[in-house]
Amino acid sequence: MFDLINVEKPARYTGGEFNEILKDHTQMLSSYAFCFPDTYEIGMSHLGMRILYHIINNREHTVCERVFAPWTDMEQLMRLNKVPLFSLETKKPVNEFDIVGFTLQYEMSYTNILNMLDLSGIPIRRQMRNEKDPIVMAGGPCAVNPAPLENIIDLFIIGEAEEAINEVLDLYEKMKIENSSKDEFLNKVVEIEGVYVPKFYDFSKKIKKRIIRDLDKVPYPTAPIVPYLSIVHDRASVELFRGCIRGCRFCQAGFIYRPVREKKASTLIDQTQRILCETGYDEIGMVSLSTSDYSDLQNLCDGMLEQTEKRMVNISVPSMRIDNFSMDLMKRIQKVRKSGLTFAPEAGSQRLRDVINKNITEEEVLTSAKIAKEGGYDNIKLYFMLGLPTETDDDIIAISDLTHKVLEVFGRKSRINITVSTSFFIPKPFTPFQWCSQITKDEMLRRQKLLKSNIQNKKIKYNWHEFDISIVESAISRGDKSTCEAIIKAWEKGSKFDSWNEYFDITRWVEAFKECELDIYEYASRSIPINQKLPWDFIDIGVTKSFLKKEYQKAFIEKTTDNCREKCNACGIAKYKCGVCFENNQIQIQKNR
Amino acid sequence: MMNAFTRSLRRAEMDVIYTQGFNPGMRLVFALPLPVGVSSDSEYVDIWFNKEYDSQFALDKLSKSLPDGFEMLEAFEVEKSTLMEDVGSAIYGFKVNSTLNLKSSLDKLLSLNKIEMEKSNKKGIVDILPYIYKIDYHDEHSFSVLCKAGAKGNLHPRLLLKALEKYTKTQIEEISINRNKLFLKVQ
Question: Does residue A196 sit in the same domain as residue A256?
Answer without folding.
Answer: no
